[in-house]
Amino acid sequence: MNFLGLPFSNHICRIIVVILFLLFLFSFVFFPFLFFNYRFSPERESKFLNNVNFPSPSSKLVHLSWFVQVTDIHVSRFDDETRVSQLREFCSSVVHVIQPALVIVTGDLTDAKTRDKIGSQQYEDEWNTYSNIIKKCSSVLLDLRGNHDSFDVSGVESENNFFKKYSAQGSYRPRSYHYQYHSPYGENYSFIALDASPVPGPRRPFNFIGQISEEEYASLEKLKQEASSSNAVIWFGHYPSSLIVSPSPGVRALMRYASAYLCGHLHTVYGYVHKMYTMQPTGMLELELGDWKDHRRYRVMAFDHGHFSFTDVKFGDNGPVVLITLPKNSQFHIPMHESYDTIEKSSHIRMLVFDDQSIESVKVFVDGVVMGEALHEEGPLYVLPWNPHLYKVGLHHIKVVVNDASGRTQTVEQPFALSPQEYSFDMLANFVLLSDFPSIGRMLFFVAVGGIVLMCFIFRRLTHKGFTYRLLLGHDTKPRWITCLLHGIRGIFRVDQFYLCILGSTIYTAVGPWFLAELIDGEIGIVFAWGMFIHRTVMHADINFLFGVTHLATFQLSLILYLSLCCIYRTRRSLHKDSNLNWQDRLLLAFKEFVFLTIIGSQCYGVYSFFISYDVISLVNPLKLGSIFLACYLRYRVGTIAPEKFGPVTAGADLRRDI
């Protein structure tokens, strides 16, 4: 008996098939667990970490600090001049009105993309523009790099690393760092910047996924230790935790005892998820903020007597910015750090109201009942007396309506509770933020490669007497067009040239070099499925697996489909001697040509995009350019081979009974 075209005994073949089956079973059984990390109940924690004994919240402006976050600015020399002018206005007016203790910028400070949007390089004038804008911010500014800021940057000391020269923190904090804010009321809040930008930083698109080296991970553990005495810890970075590859036990375990992780990078997933929030299984909030680039988003956050709250705002929206700090939105309750007793002992409802106009009224409603009008205490703080004991049981809702002197109105509503409640976050937000996309990419790639190899073997070995033949090619339970297509696939794998070309190209995609590229200016690298060899360094680039899955779908599977359609078409023409094409043959002919053009088009686009991104050296491209040659060769061969070489496919060649 042969296996994959090689002679083996029947016993060994059965063992190999069983092993392949178990691998697939393992993949699909454990695949769902890649979407979620280990879980534990934060409610079971025996203590509230690093919390001081705050006095009962009153009407006074004490134990209250607030901050601002903005992300994915993408200062560009080519695009949307309002992006820069409005950022300048934001720094000079909005930040001036809010007067936060800190402004946090979580990466992608500049765009670093060429005019055609395909290539990438660092432009010093973009960085100079960014530097001039942030100088207008009156608050302390904490920034760090995103993937765009590390395009074509070989290392921290690279001449192209303009972050070090032009950013607020880069000159003395070029990578991850720890900043501790000391509030006037005695609390200490730690902010840890997590820079997961790959080093070296290749040109786009191969740094979409963040990477933390062993050395950087050890450095982050030291920063975490430095922050252990703070009242609360906030981590911030560019990449969501679901897109960071790090040493064991992983970046989520590293941030386990933090209150929140602030990030960006995903740009609201093309507008599908504007509120991308979740609670990690480790008990930490993960809050992705929509980008400044297209959506002009920013975030206002506050710690009020140890309770963390936030609101996301669109720049340019009319009306005041309102943040209810106590009682906070109970959906974002952090059990390890926040006690319901604090709210229960409070004497006033507390909220921050920011506006460049004077405030006329602040009306408060609880469960639809008018509570009264909040009074201005000091700064942006407005307060209203209340009796929290009336709301100890169940879930309640608070609404605040603010009117300013110019007639603008802002209404804010949120749930609150004084006891544990069950909440759920947006399903898509959970999927994006709780998943482990590098692991998913690896799994999908190896399942795709293994699936195509297994397909080659199964259809190569089909016999009329076997159960698999009856299951796949029987006519009783499937539409006839599916049976016809399966017969065509069986027919092409009976031809050695097609079988070996498809099998060989699939295995090559998994193990062979894809192409050469000038991944960094002056540095030639080699790209594989498992990573890249660049700058005398082997980089594990998990984004490559996702590219590999796309290639297998657009080339390998599409090529199998095309060849099987050719097999069906040639067999039909050999059975029906009439020289005129009927409408069924015309439809089949048009569809198979469409599939072939799709194959060639997708591969040509890949060659073109790599050429634009990585210069002429990328034409040494066995993956894409080789695929074009292979597809053209197999197209020629399938048109010249005798139809009888496809074997007994006549059972599936006649579709007239179903059409």
Write a compact overview of the structure shown:
β12 (276-279) and β13 form a beta hairpin. α16 packs antiparallel against α17. With 659 residues, the chain is an alpha+beta fold.
Key features of this structure:
659 residues, alpha+beta, six-stranded mixed sheet, five-stranded mixed sheet, 17 helices, disordered N terminus, disordered C terminus
Give a written overview of the molecule.
A hairpin with a 5-residue loop joins strand 12 and strand 13 (285-288). The protein has a 6-stranded mixed β-sheet, covered by helices on one side. By secondary structure, it is α+β, with helices and mostly antiparallel strands. It is elongated and about 90 Å long. The longest helix is centred in the C-terminal third of the chain and has 33 residues, at 543-575. It is built from 17 helices and 27 strands.
Distance between the termini: 39 Å
Q: What helical percentage do the residues reach?
A: 25-40%
Instruction: Count every helix, treating DSSP H or I runs of 4 or more residues as helices.
Output: 17
Beta-strand content estimate: 15-25%
Q: Give the helix/strand class.
A: alpha+beta
Poorly predicted tracts of residues:
3-8, 28-49, 464-473, 650-659
Overall mean pLDDT stands at 85
Number of strands: 27
Instruction: Sum up the overall morphology in one term.
Output: elongated
Widest sheet, order of strands: 6-7-9-11-13-12
Rg, Å, rounded: 30 Å
Q: Main β-sheet: number of strands, strand sense, barrel status?
A: 6 strands, mixed
